[in-house]
Amino acid sequence: MTPAVWLLCAAGLAALGAGGWALWRARRTVRRLDRMLAAAIDGGFVEELYDETALSALEGRMARLLQGSAAANRALAQEQAAVKTLISDISHQARTPMANVLLYAALLEETGLTDAQRARLAPLRAQAEKLHFLLENLIRASRLETGLLQLAPAPGPVAPLLRQAAGQAQAAARAKGVALTAAPCDAEACFDAKWTPEALYNLVDNAVKYTPPGGRVTVEAALTESFCRIDVADTGPGIPEAEQAAIFARFARGAAARDTEGLGIGLYLARQIAAGQGGFLRVRSAPGQGSVFSLYLPRQAVQSYQTVTLPKAP
Q1: pLDDT tens digit string along 140-164?
Q2: Domain Histidine kinase: where (predicted)?
Q3: Where in 224-290 does DSSP place strands (E)?
Q4: Which letter does DSSP use for residue 256 in this model?
Q5: Could you report the per-residue pLDDT of 254-278, keeping only the tens digit for each?
Q6: d(Cα 314, Cα 306) in Å, to the nearest integer?
Q7: Which of 145, 263, 267 is nearest to 202 (CA)?
Q8: Helix (H) and strand (E) counts for the chain?
């Protein structure tokens, strides 16, 4: 083989080697960038040192971007925690004064008030009761969010849950002319006996509240492979699909509910209670076709159920 051929071969091998080296570095950089992004998504990104080659410069810029994003996320989480703490503190501090306002309003009603004075006292008491209800629910929500309130799911029959929720809302349903029925069932599930009835009652109360006179609300249960699904169906105005993802947020209310008395916290609290024991909530609805809110309860005890936190939009 002549020297010229040797030189050509050597040059070709060198080019192949350089190309292979560049390809290996590119693949390594892609893998490292992928790990960096995965760590950032999981919240565990830590910046590392890189050399000053072109590919590592790209890694460095990506690292600085992710580091800034991680810092912003930490700051946002701290601000959210501070707001939750503030709401919880205000709710606790206002709880006793509001209870005293209701007490004195009740005492005033027992005195010899004129009709005009009673007419002025009635809206005062109604607004005080509304504010008291809001404070109590904010306290419940803050206890669930911070983990101060631990749910204790245990196996039990579902039928008493349905009867209790329907019984609590029956007076309001009759007064409004809404037919409220709870279907019989023999299903069992695993749920917290104290807080699950409250979550279900919130769903039934909402259904009665938003169903027009002459409508109907039905509460029934069905079994799936892993869950017991409790459906609360109404013949109300329905909820547009664009609003369904947001109605479970705190203080969220749909456009059709603006003229109906409410605080926008019942669904939020119900979702928190469901999530705290391994369950969840779903809604099926369309304008003019009513709504079906479904509370899913595990059929068996969940070994490690989700800690209750502020839910993300589904």
Answers
A1: 766 666 666 678 899 999 999 999 9
A2: 89-301
A3: 227-234, 280-285
A4: G
A5: 555 555 565 667 888 888 889 888 9
A6: 16
A7: 267
A8: 7, 7
